[in-house]
Design goal:
heterotrimer; A alpha/beta; B alpha/beta; C mainly alpha; B: alpha/beta; Rossmann fold; five-stranded parallel sheet; C: mainly alpha; two-stranded antiparallel sheet
């Protein structure tokens, strides 16, 4: 036992120290506008990113040192948050999406807060705050991506609508992700449910007989099976994001290509919104609220497209050039209310599994 | 009449060390002792005769067969090491019958024969025991009859008593010599102990002569 | 001269040593699981056990795991026979290379397999079994090899002179000697394959689901914790049954006395030499083929060959929180690996020693294998719950990650150390005691040299586990630089050839790092062995 003990002791001392430091700040300044230095811990998924300069700016303006703690993908982060609801590992959470949010709300993960910047959020997202518990920060669309060059080379007209994918001329061309293991995979399944209602299982039956390939993850589908991906793929159609084309350019080899390899099928896209919320039980609500306002500030919102490849929730943000040119604007995205997703998700996944024999 | 064993200008070697050519002749039913300090290639010579190490040049002839290029398991050469090296996954009798089983003798027949052989060395009733229950001297006796069981044309003994204490060593050496003579088994006995060599052997070869 | 169990001259501290592994496992394994079950308890969860599909998955996963184990043994035993027994040039390198697949992040293994086999092998049963065999090769080679390397070759020689053909020698002498290590490595490979997650998600289909993949779906997609807990308990029960079967199968029989530094010099026979070289070369080729695919990916772009993935690695995404510097990630990974290596080899070493010193020690060693079968997802969440309340809020300390890694590594450490210690003749200790050495001194005289060698080897394996591991820890939120596997996964989860190229570069760096680590540890182990000759 002798070697475990010191470890436990030092950890305990560390957390006591942290707790008193926070308490000191709160006692000195109970009002939600901060003056003294403080640390705010942001819990988020592994894909979170902002420019370092913005974090430095936050510290300069508010005294807040932002500590970013990542813990797996969005599902894992929310699962952890639900289990530690009331005794959170941090102060603020970013990255809960519209498919997960209602379960987090039900578990009491968040305390109410309405951001001072909420009024400037684009109207379709503005009201979507789960009764003032969460704040929309960004959104993205899961869409079919098409290998432009492949279709040109084989003189085949690319599909225009979701329904086209079941046609024989697109046999063995599509790769999708398993909705049971992949977030875009699940979004695409939800898109088909939103689009075809009771007929969604028939649609998948047709996709299956038309040779759809199911990959375990986005990486496997895009890098492994997609013709314009990293490997030796053989599928010119893949379920990905509306923002994948600009990402292809940003993350291309030098010299950068002038045009992306992929174009987006803008029909049948599923919209994912990412929210942030103050974690219930935090000792630093004020700091957490400041961080939410910061996430929704014009500076961070302008940074979001190129650091996370999603669209900013704030209205009137001028997108970077590569975004303006190549990210596909989706006019009528599909969406299913968070409540319905929470209720029926398990059943839908089972039904999908039966249809696809997985 | 052929020799039980003859080496003809046999050169043995190990990790770059090479012996001078060795010519050794062992007549049937006799015991030859090879005497020499340790680390002198005596064990390498025995391994080469037994076929578990390849000769560099020269020949090994067992009876009237040149076995130089015949694998160990077809040579009919028995070998006993310093330690008994009994197979712990088998009981004592199965150890002794191991060689017979390899000759196609059924397991029960091999066992019956093994019990007889154990009797020779005073180990009546030990057949069913685990090898871990044997004392050092008992284990070495078992190793000896195990090597004798398949009737080898020649038996090679590589310092078989040196791990035992002095009293036991002398006693066992005499006992083994009697046993081999009684059965008419030819043997080569390697030792660094001149007294042991004198006690057991018909001929003594001093290995220092060829050990450079 | 002492006989029997030798309890009289067992040092006192040794008799109590079982407390350390037991406490470690109770606190960091049993407690999180129990807390998770209690906190998420609901009768609903257990209904999943009434689902036919749950049992179908269990049965299929069992078949899959058995086949993966058989294939690992079929490929691993010949490799172990060569690389852990014969001394030839490049042996140490070959031995280290075989460890590499074990620490490659599963995502990398899956991609490498995909780019190697292309569409020749569709995803599903076969490719999953192949990938499992590839990854677990190191388990077989390390565990069996460490016992094989101490095999006294003269047993085989004696059998040969008694008329046994090489095949019979293998069957009647070598195999019985290796029995315990073959069984323990089989148990480990089975558990790894049965509870596999990454490879299942990336390469599997409906025929290769595992309970673990269902648990992950329940925890992080459906957020159905009661069902996840029920499945985790089911998985645990299966694992316990397998461990018990393994224990029964390896019931102690007589053991050939091992020797240390038993490396054989190359046979003079040309055919044997050729065979040995061929197996060594083939084993390296098997290991390196997927690595070669990565190497190509690291210098290729759509417009041809490029070095920019290598040169840009430090500049990629600089100025954002996205990736951080690879150097920082390497440092982070190494730090976790070091802590894991120390904790796991101490705890695992104590568990292995408990086997010698205590009547119930055997059960401690068996208990120590269980973490292999614990669902990574439930362990991660359980730790979060168990250590998230004052006075022990370990969540924030960053210590939970190496602790989770250690849990996964301890069983491997035990599997390496226990057979080696069991092989030492307890009489050596008794002899030392009769020469007047006090119990502690006598103990170290008999066991010290071997203990040091195998603990180092086991510690190296534990470090390697930590370098590649990412399952349990991914639930544990942490600040600071991401570990290298997490970096790779993040890079791979976005489009663009840069992401793919740099991920390949980072995978290669991880592989190189592991190679160096394993080589250094092997060398340390050998040097310590050489300092103390056998007599």
């Amino acid at each position: 036992m002798s070697f475990i003990k010191p470890v436990l002791t030092s950890a305990a001392v560390g957390s006591v120290f942290l707790a008193t430091a926070c308490a000191g700040v709160n006692n000195a300044d109970p009002v939600p506008t901060l003056t003294g230095p403080t640390t705010v811990r942001l819990i988020t998924h592994d894909s979170f990113a902002v420019s370092d300069a913005l974090i430095a700016d936050l510290k300069a303006k508010t005294g807040i040192t932002l500590e970013i703690a990542t813990g797996g993908d969005a599902g894992q982060v929310v699962a952890s948050a639900i289990l530690s609801a009331g005794a959170p590992t941090g102060d603020v959470l970013f990255g809960v999406d519209n498919n997960l949010v209602s379960k987090a709300i039900d578990a009491g993960v968040f305390e109410s807060y309405t951001s001072i910047n909420l009024g400037n959020v684009i109207p379709t997202l503005r009201d979507d705050t789960s009764e003032g518990k969460v704040t929309p920060i960004d959104y993205g669309d899961v869409c079919i991506n098409m290998d432009t060059a492949w279709f040109a080379k084989n003189s085949i007209t690319p599909p225009k609508r979701l329904e086209d994918l079941t046609k024989p001329e697109y046999k063995d061309m599509l790769v999708v992700e398993d909705p049971g293991t992949s977030s875009p995979g699940q979004a695409f399944m939800l898109a088909t449910i939103a689009r075809f209602n009771d007929g969604w299982q028939d649609y998948w039956t047709k996709l299956r007989s038309n040779g759809v390939k199911v990959a375990g993850s986005w990486t496997d589908a895009y890098e492994g099976s997609y013709t314009a991906g990293g490997g030796n793929g053989d599928r010119p159609l893949v379920v990905s994001y509306a923002t994948s084309p600009p990402a292809e350019i940003v993350y291309a080899a030098d010299p950068k290509p002038t045009k992306p390899y992929s174009t987006v099928l803008t029909d049948g896209c599923y919209r994912q919104v990412e929210y942030a919320g103050v974690l219930a039980g935090t000792k630093n609500s004020a700091g957490a609220q400041t961080v939410i306002n910061w996430l929704l500030s014009p500076a961070v919102q302008t940074d979001i497209p190129l650091s996370m490849f999603v669209f900013p929730a704030l209205a009137g943000v001028i997108p970077p050039k590569v975004f303006a040119e190549f990210a596909a604007p989706v006019r009528d995205p599909l969406q299913i209310p968070a409540r319905d997703v929470a209720e029926k998700q398990s059943q839908w996944l089972d039904e999908w599994g039966q249809v696809m024999g997985r | 009449m052929p020799y039980a064993l003859r080496t003809d200008h046999l050169v043995v070697g190990y990790d770059g060390w090479v012996s001078t050519p060795i010519t050794l002749e062992v007549e049937p039913g006799t015991i030859t002792a090879i005497l020499g300090p340790s680390g002198c290639g005596k064990s390498t010579l025995l391994s080469t005769i037994a076929g578990i190490r390849e000769a560099i040049s020269g020949h090994v002839i067992v009876g009237d067969v040149d076995v130089t290029h015949i694998p160990a398991h077809e040579r009919s050469v028995g070998l006993v090491f310093q330690e008994p090296l009994l197979f712990p996954n088998y009981d004592v009798a199965r150890n002794v019958g191991y060689g017979l089983e390899r000759q196609g003798v059924s397991r029960s027949a091999a066992r019956a024969r093994a019990l007889e052989l154990l009797e020779w060395v005073g180990l009546v009733g030990y057949g069913d025991r685990s090898v871990d229950e044997l004392s050092g001297g008992q284990a070495q006796r078992v190793a000896l009859v195990r090597a004798l069981a398949p009737n080898p044309a020649i038996l090679l003994l590589d310092e078989p008593f040196s791990a035992l204490d002095v009293d036991l060593r002398q006693h066992l050496a005499r006992e083994v010599a009697e046993l081999l003579r009684g059965r008419g088994v030819a043997a080569v006995h390697v030792t660094h102990d001149p007294a042991e060599a004198e006690a057991i052997a018909d001929h003594v070869v001093r290995f220092a002569d060829i050990c450079e | 001269m002492g006989s029997g169990d030798g309890a009289l001259n067992t040092p006192r501290w040794l008799r109590g040593i079982w407390v350390i592994p037991l406490a470690f496992l109770l606190v960091f394994l049993a407690l999180p699981l129990v807390v998770l079950i209690i906190r998420t308890w609901s009768g609903d969860g257990w209904r999943i056990l009434a689902n036919a599909s749950t049992w179908q998955i269990t049965a299929l996963a069992t078949v899959q795991a058995v086949l993966s184990t058989v294939l690992s043994l079929a490929v691993g035993l010949p490799i172990a026979a060569v690389v852990s027994r014969y001394s030839f040039r490049g042996r140490a390198l070959a031995q280290a290379l075989v460890t590499v697949p074990f620490v490659m992040p599963t995502v990398v293994v899956a991609l490498a397999f995909r780019s190697l086999l292309g569409s020749a092998l569709p995803q599903g049963f076969l490719i999953v079994v192949l990938a499992h065999a590839y990854v677990n090769l190191a388990v077989v080679v390390r565990i069996v090899g460490s016992q094989w390397s101490q095999h006294d070759d003269r047993y085989a020689r004696v059998a040969q002179t008694l008329g046994a053909t090489p095949l019979t020698v293998f069957r009647t002498v070598t195999l019985p000697y290796l029995r315990s290590s073959i069984i323990s490595s089989s148990v480990v490979v089975f558990i790894f394959s049965f509870t596999s997650l990454g490879i299942i998600v990336l390469l599997g289909d409906s025929s290769t689901r595992t309970l673990e993949s269902q648990i992950l779906r329940r925890t992080s997609v459906l957020l159905d914790f009661p069902a996840a807990a029920a499945l985790a308990v089911l998985q645990l029960i299966v694992i316990c049954i397998v461990i018990a079967l393994g224990a029964v199968a390896s019931r102690k029989r007589g053991q050939q006395k091992p020797v240390r530094n038993a490396l054989l010099s190359m046979p003079t026979n040309r055919a044997s030499r050729t065979a040995i070289h061929l197996i060594a070369v083939c084993s390296c080729a098997i290991v390196l083929l997927p690595v070669f695919a990565l190497l190509i990916a690291s210098v290729r772009s759509n417009s041809g060959l490029t070095t920019q993935w290598w040169t840009s690695i430090n500049a990629i995404d600089s100025g954002t929180t996205r990736i951080g510097s690879p150097v920082a990630s390497l440092a982070q990974s190494l730090q976790f690996a070091l802590i894991t290596g120390i904790v796991a080899s101490l705890v695992g070493g104590c568990a292995a020693l408990a086997v010698l010193a205590h009547r119930w020690g055997r059960f401690i060693a068996l208990f120590a294998i269980i973490p292999l079968g614990i669902s990574a997802a439930t362990l991660g969440l359980g730790m979060l719950l168990a250590f998230g309340r004052p006075p022990v809020d370990l969540r924030a300390s960053g210590l939970l990650i190496p602790l989770a890694h250690s849990l996964v590594a301890v069983p491997l450490v035990v599997a390496v150390i226990a057979p080696a210690l069991r092989g030492i003749d307890p009489r050596a200790r008794e002899v030392a005691a009769t020469l007047g050495a006090r119990p502690t001194r006598a103990f170290f005289t008999a066991y010290g040299p071997t203990l040091r060698t195998v603990m180092l080897a086991a510690g190296g394996l534990a470090c390697a586990v930590s370098l590649g591991e990412f399952g349990a820890a991914s639930f544990l939120a942490r600040t600071g630089a991401p570990t290298v596997p997490i970096q790779i996964v993040r890079l791979l989860s976005r489009p663009g050839e840069q992401s793919y190229g740099v991920a390949a570069v980072m995978s290669l760096i991880l592989i190189a790092l592991t190679l160096v680590l394993v080589l250094v540890v092997d060398r340390l182990g050998r040097r310590n062995g050489a300092l103390r000759p056998a007599h």
